[in-house]
Amino acid sequence: MPETGARLAPDAARRGNGRVFLRLPVMPGPRTDTPATTPPLSLLFGYGPMLPILAAGIAALAGWEWAIEAGRLWSASILIFLGGVTRGLSFFTAGGPRLPQIGIMLLRFVLGLSALVLPSVLAFAALLAGYASVPLYDVQAAHHGTAPRYFARLRWPQMGLALIGLALLLAASLQAN
Fold first, then answer.
1. How many CB atoms lie within 10 A of CB 79?
2. Which tens digit of pLDDT belongs to each residue from 44-61?
3. pLDDT for 113-144, tens place per residue?
4. Alpha carbons within 13 A on the beta-carbon side of 13
5. Cα atoms in the 13 Å half-sphere on the side-chain side of 17
6. What is the pTM for the complete model shown?
7. How many angstroms separate the CA atoms of 127 and 135, rounded?
8. Contact of 89 with 101, CB cutoff 8 Å
9. How much is the average pLDDT of 90-112?
10. Tell me, what's the pLDDT at 25?
11. Angle at 26 between CA 18 and CA 43, to 5 degrees
């Protein structure tokens, strides 16, 4: 019978008979099959979709009312897409998808979808929460091997643009109401 305690991963538990009944795979660290620096196309396709959100926020505060709805539709679409990115990455996770990956994917999908039907003030609050989840989760995922390594450097500045744009859209939406 194996020893109890020290040699088990912290997520393993033992039954009274000393046998392990739960052992979750632990990711060893960052993925070595992905670059540490952001590839040029990932810069283009990473920052590119954030620029319309920022532009819509600026336009909405400048009084262009159509920018509020355009910003909401674009932002919701991109957030739903980002949920799909998380799900897609889960297919390449060693040992299979993890519960946090599925949870984050569902969170982003539901918040993005909700933003399409909620009143604009609530929609932008939901979008702010969804976009904030991206760097909060993806940076950790990059460090633990469930996302490309370059996500650790990309996500905060990338989502920073979106969060600024969404905050501007929320402010314009509050002014319009």
1. 28
2. 999 999 999 999 999 999
3. 999 999 999 999 999 999 999 999 999 999 99
4. 4
5. 3
6. 0.82
7. 14
8. yes
9. 94
10. 47
11. 170
Can you tell me which residue has the tokens 């990455």?
89
- Amino acid 7: pLDDT: 39
The CA distance from 31 to 10, in Å, is 22
Q: 136-159 pLDDT, tens per residue?
A: 999 999 999 999 999 999 999 999
What tokens appear for 132 in the block?
């904030």
CA distance 96 to 25: 9
Count Cβ atoms below 10 Å from residue 91 Cβ, excluding itself: 9
The three-state DSSP-derived secondary structure of the chain is CCCCCCCCCCCCEECCCCCEEECCCCCCCCCCCCCCCCCHHHHHHHHHHHHHHHHHHHHHHCCCCHHHHHHHHHHHHHHHHHHHHHHHHHCCCCCCCCHHHHHHHHHHHHHHHHHHHCCHHHHHHHHHHHHHHHHHHHHHHHHCCCCCCCHHHHHHHHHHHHHHHHHHHHHHHHHHC
